[in-house]
Amino acid sequence: MLLTITNERTPATDLGYLLHKSPERLHSFSLAYGKAHIFYPEATPERCTVALLLEIDPIGLVRNRRGPSGDNHSLEHYVNDRPYVASSFLSVALARVLGTAMAGKSKHRAGLVDEPLPLTAKLAVIFSRGGEEAIRKLFAPLGYEVKAERHPLDENFPEWGQGPYYALELRKEVTVRELLNHLYVLIPVLDPDKHYWVGDDEVDKLLRKGEGWLKTHPERDYIVRRYLKRRGRLTRMALARLVDETPDPDAELEKKTQQEEEIEKPLKLHEQRLNAVAEKLKEAGAQRVVDLGCGEGKLLRALLKEKQFKEIFGMDVSYRSLEIAADRLKLETMPPTQKKRIQLVQGSLMYRDKRIAGFDGATVVEVIEHLDEPRLAAFERVLFDFAKPSTVVITTPNSEYNVKFETLPAGQMRHKDHRFEWTRAQFQDWATALAARYGYTVSFFPIGDEDQVVGAPSQMGVFQR
Ligand code: SAH
């Protein structure tokens, strides 16, 4: 299996910096199903080509039950196209050996990461049942000049005609990161074979690698379905997340959250809120806790300081927030004993997710008001019916208090992305009915200094099962 990428912008050997692989030597890696080698057949200032050669071990595939399905003794296990055809194995290898480049990081050429370069990618053999048309449909909308040359079934017997295999060449001024992410997603789309790694986290990977292009690709639904190998549930989950009508919770949200913080800052409200939530979890004796909609990880940081919490799980729908959280928590350099306690995952509160089931405590801090009211029902089922933690702590603004914020114009909500802000009565009505429905009891607490008339700035419900 061979992939080459050529850069024709002088100094072309900068490609080596972008890929974190020096053109001067051979780089070899052992993978579960064979070996990957990276080398540079040419490396001049004008033209530099990197090759990723994947040696698949068909016997190893059988041993690991990762080869084609069917009878274990059949010849197909030993003689098949897996070693030659670009497939999901190539994507796995790309992520393994060029993962840093795919994430858009470069130590020595950071400025070059976002610069489109005149790149040509060649795949020696890909499979396409839908012919050249199917290949073109995937790559052309992304702006690639596509050349697909069909391989004859057997060069020695031209009368046998053409096979379903093609040599593919793609050209475009594109960043290395984008090219790698496009290949990562689209190669398995063309490969009809089952690959062994389709699991729930595959949806996260697909969305991450597809960030910035998959959502608007005209063949989006087809790509998602084929990438996830027609697993209906996963496909629906991925598409729902891609077309989620809640606005992109990333870039915009950061800005709006800052505005909200400005409004509430004089009260140090968020600090009080996080302390109150942590206190309730401690009182409940929770040891394994999940923070849903953890954002940039402020509560996670507070929880880490408390030894009582043995396992801390943070989930958010926004990948960018999670990256910021990982940075702020210094996850990468955390001592292993600490690091074992914490895990961050991308996920949505709108979908059942077994990763969040079975915790002692769950927190949902300043999140529900970001969900569309009609969709709260889905959230309720996901958390109270499916994940069922023993204790749930939910906080949300008290809208009655808004009149007291000097910088907040009358009638406006604190955060432009809030779908609603509730009075105390509204929150308590919702929470009481919800608790009764799912067999919980609930008590309410004010957060921040209480005003006689309008109450405290924020409110908290503690649910217990
Ligand atoms: N709990 C954090 C962040 C609150 S901001 C704190 O108190 O500091 C609201 C967070 O909810 C954002 O990080 C947003 O990405 C997340 N969010 C919004 N909709 C979500 C959904 N459907 N599933 C999971 N997280 C969601």
Automatic annotation (TrEMBL):
Keywords: Magnesium, Metal-binding, Methyltransferase, RNA-binding, RNA-mediated gene silencing, S-adenosyl-L-methionine, Transferase. Pfam families: Hen1_L, Methyltransf_23. SUPFAM superfamilies: S-adenosyl-L-methionine-dependent methyltransferases. One of its GO terms (molecular function) is RNA binding. InterPro entries: 3'-RNA_MeTfrase_Hen1_bac (IPR024026), Hen1 (IPR026610), Hen1_N (IPR024740), Hen1_N_sf (IPR038546), SAM-dependent_MTases_sf (IPR029063). The keyword Signal does not apply. Residues 1-242 form the Hen1 N-terminal domain. Its cofactor is Mg(2+). It catalyses: small RNA 3'-end nucleotide + S-adenosyl-L-methionine = small RNA 3'-end 2'-O-methylnucleotide + S-adenosyl-L-homocysteine + H(+). Gene3D superfamilies: Hen1, N-terminal domain (3.30.1610.20), Vaccinia Virus protein VP39 (3.40.50.150). PANTHER family: HEN1 (PTHR21404), SMALL RNA 2'-O-METHYLTRANSFERASE (PTHR21404:SF3). Belongs to the methyltransferase superfamily. HEN1 family. This is Small RNA 2'-O-methyltransferase. It comes from Koribacter versatilis (strain Ellin345).
